[in-house]
Amino acid sequence: MNVGVDARHLDAGRGIAVYLEGMLGALHGVRISVLVPGRAPLGPAAVALAARRDVRVVRTRAPGRALYASAAAAGEPTLARLLGAVDVLWIPAPAPVAPGPLPYVLTVHDRSFEVRPGDFTPYERLWHRLARPRELARGAARVVTDTAAVRDELRDAWGLERVTVVAPGVRRPAEVAATAGDYVLFVGALEPRKDPVAVARAAAAAGIRARFAGTGRLEGAVRATGGELLGRVTDAELDALLAGALALVVPSHLEGFGFPPLEAALRGTPSVVRDLPVLRETLGDEGALFVAGEREIADAIARLRAEPWLRASLSAHAAARAPRWENAAEALRAVLAEAAA
Description:
Largest sheet: 7 strands, parallel
CATH topology of the largest domain: Rossmann fold
Mean pLDDT: 92
Number of domains: 2
CATH architecture of the largest domain: 3-Layer(aba) Sandwich
Shape: globular
Strand content: 15-25%
Oligomer: single chain
Number of strands: 13
Low-confidence stretches: none
CATH superfamily of the largest domain: Glycogen Phosphorylase B
C-alpha cells in the first residue's frame, strides 16, 4: 500500500507537527509519499523522513499558501495529482485541500474553529472557511479522532458514522531526574483557547514563578502579568523544564487530546488541568488535579507544595495511560488499509 500524506505542517512547531512527526516516524510496512509544498529548505522532521527508503518527499514550485488557496477555490491541483501513484490519502488535520478521486482518511483533532471562533484571527477564520472541515469529513472514506469525546462530538454535530479513535503516542523521555522546582510550567501556543494568562495570574496569586514554553499572540499579555517567556524550546530543553517544574498547568478551554500533561507525567511531574471531558479521558480521574478556574489553579499549586506525595501519585497514574506511537501508527495503518479497500 502506498500512502500519500498532506505534510504541510511537518515542521510547523506546534501540536499538529508533533502529531504528524510522531505518527509518520512510527508508520512502517507501507510506502509513504509526503507532500511538503514550496522550495524552502526542508526542516529537521522532513529531512529525517527523507532519509528513509520507504519515504518519498514531494516538493512543488508554488509555495504552500498559493497551492492550497488554488485547491480551495478551483479544486486544482488535487493531492492525487501532486502525489502521483498512491492508493490512499491521509490528511492529518482539516485544511484547504482538494483530495481528488482517491479515497482519503481525515484526522479531526477538535472543533475549536466552530466552538470558539472568536479565539482565531480573521486570517485563521478565513482559512477554516476555505478548509470546509464538515464537507471534507463527510467526503472521507474514514475519519480519525484522538479521543472518544471528540468522536462523539463529530457524530452529534456533523452526523458522522465512520469515525475511529486512534490515540496518539507520547514522546518518551531521555533519562531526566524529576525534582519539584520553584516554578510552574505552561507548554503550548500562547493563544486565547489555551488561556496562558490564567496561568500567570494564578501563579502570581500562589507566589510562584510561571514559565512559558511556546509562542503566540498573547506573549505581551503573559509578560505583563509576570510570566517568563522562553519561546520555542528543543526536546532536550523541554524534558529538563518538565522534570524540574512543580507542576504543568493546562487551563485550556478546549483540547483535542493533551500531549503536554502526558509528557510531564512520563518525566515525573503532575499536572493541574481544566476539567474537560477530553483530559479526563486522556489522563484518568486520578491522573491530574482538575480545576475550574484561576482560583482553583492557585489552590492546586498550594496543595502540591504542601503534599509532596501527591506529585508522585498523580504523575504515576497519568504515565501509566500514555500511549505509544508504535501502537498509534499500527491502528492508523489499519484504517488506511480499510479506506484503500
